[in-house]
Amino acid sequence: MGKERLSWTIHEGPIGPLTVVAAASGITNIHFSGTAPRLPQEARRPLPEVAAQLDAYFGGEMQGFDLDLDLHGAPLQRAVWERLLEIPYGKTTTYGGLARALDESLYPAGVEPHLRARVVGQAVGRNPVPVLVPCHRVIGADGSLTGYFGGLERKRVLLELEGWSGVRKSAVGGRAEGQLALGVEISEEVRDGEAAAT
């Protein structure tokens, strides 16, 4: 069986050019400027639906995407990416919050609960379609911007586009205002231990 035919295009936006790669079954990758592999020139073609939805998102007219994705990864990675898709526009969560929301059976044997945020962070960092799968909505336990493959400035721009205006602690559970717990309250002890893991 031969390789699946890929198409790609470059989309210009407020976070710089994005190289979008698609297969017949959906978007497979989005690469930030300078990170795309060498792609065959003959496969470059317009992807009008992708361009229209990215323009609408960057223009503040659209809060989610209705595009087919073709994501490949280990079960834990896919579970993390699915959780990322559940984070609403304009909201954030933490690596620890994601870690606690996952089924324990997905973690490699021997990974202690206090180290799961690091494992989740690695899966978030391997998200092949940033922006579409909103890994920029995951922040540090203390509300800081941490760990974004595209660079923290891009992460800040994306969050601000969605209405985020920095870290504001709320009175509820010490979470930053607008931050989701994904069904789990974050205790101060966990938050303090998680800061080092993010």
Q: What would you note in describing this structure?
A:
This protein is an alpha+beta fold. The chain folds into two domains: 52 residues, Double Stranded RNA Binding Domain; 123 residues, Winged helix-like DNA-binding domain superfamily/Winged helix DNA-binding domain (Arc Repressor Mutant, subunit A). The protein has six helices and five strands. The strands form two sheets. The protein has a three-stranded antiparallel β-sheet, covered by helices on one side. Helix 3 packs across helix 4. It is globular. It starts with 6 loop residues before the first strand and ends with a helix.
What would a concise description of this structure say?
The protein folds into two domains: 7-58, 2-Layer Sandwich (Double Stranded RNA Binding Domain), CATH 3.30.160; 75-197, Arc Repressor Mutant, subunit A, CATH 1.10.10. The chain is 30% helix and 11% strand. It contains six helices and five strands, in the order E-E-E-H-H-E-H-H-E-H-H.
Instruction: Give me the number of helical elements.
Output: 6
Shape: globular
The major pleated sheet works out as: 3 strands, antiparallel
Count of extended strands: 5
> Segments where pLDDT lies below 50 for 5+ residues?
168-198
Strand order, biggest sheet? 1-2-3
What is the H/E order?
EEEHHEHHEHH
> Architecture of the largest domain in CATH?
Orthogonal Bundle
